[in-house]
Amino acid sequence: MTDIQAAISAAASGMRAQTVRMRVAAENVANANSTGANPNEEPFRRRIPLMETTTLASGALGVRVTGATRDMAEFREEYNPSHPAADSDGYVRLPNVDTLVEMMDLREATRAYEANLNMIEAARTMTARALDLLRR
Hints:
Oligomer: single chain
Strand content: 15-25%
Distance between the termini: 25 Å
Order of helices and strands: HEEEEH
């Protein structure tokens, strides 16, 4: 495999990982207000994607998602005694999701995705230019 093909496969692995990262962040945002149905049920717990470096078939280093873990940070609490999930003191446990953090993660993942896409476009352009030079 050529260096250009290795670069493309590394960038593609990064794009796949960032897609998962965006999907997990979007899921966190979508569940930012998901409480339990009763005081004994836990609300939604934020998920964090786990990534690691890996050697690709091309021999290049890439990244892969190995799963997701639950963020064990404390839940937020809000006083709302009329809520079905309120405890005896009137407090409802809310998810440990901070939408501002999730939106920043989404933006960072989007930019990383775009950087990998630009890498693939640059490799394609270099290949096309090399082919043009060989045709002359």
